[in-house]
Every structure is written in C-alpha cells, then in structure tokens.
Design goal:
About 15% of the residues lie in helices and about 35% in strands. It has about 290 residues and is an alpha+beta fold. It has a single domain, classed as Fumarylacetoacetate hydrolase, domain 2, CATH 3.90.850. Strands 1, 2, 3, 4, 7, 8, 10 and 13 form an eight-stranded mixed sheet that branches. Strands 5-15-14-11-12 form a five-stranded mixed sheet.
Length: about 290
C-alpha cells in the first residue's frame, strides 16, 4: 500500500543513518579509511549508526534538514556534494525504563537521499550530513510495511538514482535490489537496537553515542532511518552536484517497472507517473543571501 509522507510529522522524529550497509559504497565515497579504528560487530556488519537530526537538540543537529523537492548547497568553500540513494525506513521506537531504545518497529519505506558532503578530515559523520534546511530529501509517498525482510517488506523493491543536468539524464547510482543490503530484516533491526544501546563513539572514530542523544532528546517515538546507500555508477562516483541539477532517487517495485523502464521514464521527465514507486526529485540551488 502506498502512503503519504508528511514533513510536519518528521519534525518530531529522530533522523538516523546506517553507515556501510552496501558493499563497496564507503570505498567509492572515499570514506573507508575513516572507519579504520572501528571494530565491527561482525565482518559483514555495517560500520555503525549516525545522527543527522535530533529534535530539540541545540546546534546543527537540531536544524530540520528534510524537504520533498529542494536541495540547497552548503555555504562552505571547497566541498563536494554527492547524492546518497537509499531506502529510508519510517519506524516507531520503543524504550526501556532507563530511556534506552528497546524496539524498532517498521511502518513504511520510502525513497531517501542522505546527501553528503565529501570532505576529508571531517570529525564525525554527522558533520557531513546536515548543513541546515534542505540538506536532505524524502519522497512524498512511500510503501507501508510491517517488516524489512528481504522476502517481506523489501521483496521486489529496487533503488535507482539519476542526475538531470542541462537537459541530460545520467544514471548516478547502480540500480540495485533493496534485498541486496548487507544487513536487512530482523538482522538489521537487532543490530540497530544494539548500536543505539551500546555505541559510544570515540575521538579516533567518526561515530557518536547516538542512543544517548535520543535519551537526552526525551525519547522520540518515531525515526526516519537511512539504511544505507547503493554503489555509484562511474558517473556518480566522479560527478558532484551543482546549482541547477536535479537529484532523483526512486524506490520502485520490479513487478511493475524494469530498470530500463524506470530510466526511460526519467529520460522523458515522467518519473512521477511510474506505478508502485516512491519518487524523490530535488532541484539543487544555493542558499538565499542573508539580510
């Protein structure tokens, strides 16, 4: 079932992400070395979780960054920006008596752009994730789910992404099955709960005590979680966003559209007409000048 995704509801939801949940993405993004001092929970496990928005928190993490249709370039010299095409998980959070996350209950999946600054030497992942309003994107419609199992809520879903520039369309991410995540389903849910309870972060890693942030924020009862970005095409790996581009992320059902059919729809400017698809199109612009 397709559902509407309201931005107003997301303002009280925690914004989280999973790092390194698609084989090869961190290497392509030039970020694998950042995790040299992170000991994974298992060889194939993601590297950790990170925050991109914490409701009520002071500083940059307290700025609500999500839009349905706009992406504003950071007002920072010498930085590059890449689309990060992902499945976004809308979930309900439960807590124990000590305020630690005890459950994550999937409610919907949606096309999500965890757009990221590529900048060497960033102290934490979150430093590259939220640079203010309109630095993240979520589709206005998603799919209701009760799980994210490869043969359940993610079954048949694929992730595609494109850049539209000067009237030309380029495949940006490798069209990939959502079931291709390293961790999915109960395995991913259990891992995320463990990380939100146990991940502490350290000065020599890019990770932070995300679960502690949620406790201090009053235990928000919902979350939007990016569960990992796909690999890039050669174009996407080497091409960064500039003003005037359009970033396109589509989560679609392979039973109603083929990868070639999705690409043709985007080429024709008809991506919003795709059946059984969660479609996110963001126009890239620059921040408005101050007074």
């Amino acid at each position: 079932m397709v559902i509407d995704v309201a931005l107003a509801a997301l303002r009280s939801a925690a914004g989280l992400g999973v790092a390194g949940n698609f084989a090869g993405h961190l290497e392509q993004a030039g970020e694998a070395a950042d995790f040299a001092n992170v000991v994974p929970t298992a060889a194939e496990a993601p590297k950790g979780m990170f925050p991109w928005f914490v409701p009520g928190r002071s500083g940059q993490l307290g700025e609500f960054p999500v839009t349905h249709d706009e992406l504003v370039l950071p007002d920072q010299p010498g930085v590059d920006l890449q689309i990060e095409p992902e499945v976004g998980l809308l979930a309900r959070l439960g807590y124990d008596d000590h305020g630690a996350v005890a459950s994550i209950t999937p409610e919907a999946v949606v096309a999500w752009n965890d757009c990221s600054i590529r900048r060497e030497g960033a102290r934490k992942i979150s430093d590259k994730k939220n640079w203010g309003p309109a630095s993240k994107g979520v589709a206005a419609r998603g799919f209701a789910v009760t799980d994210i199992e490869p043969d359940g809520g993610l079954a048949g879903l694929r992730i595609a992404s494109f850049m539209r520039r000067d009237g030309q369309v380029h495949a940006y991410g490798v069209d990939s099955p959502a079931a291709g995540y390293s961790y999915a389903g109960t395995t991913l849910i259990d891992w995320m709960i463990d990380r939100l309870r146990e991940q502490r972060g350290a000065d020599d890693t890019p990770l932070e005590p995300v679960g502690e942030y949620l406790t201090l924020a009053g235990c928000p009862d919902t979350a939007l979680i990016g569960i990992g970005a796909t690999r890039y095409t050669p174009f996407g790996e080497t091409t960064y966003l500039v003003a005037g581009d359009e970033s396109i992320v589509i989560v679609y059902h392979e039973g109603t559209s083929s990868p070639a059919g999705v690409a043709d729809a985007v080429l024709a400017g008809a991506e919003h007409s795709l059946p059984q698809a969660s479609v996110l199109v963001q126009r890239v612009g620059v921040a408005a000048a101050g007074p």
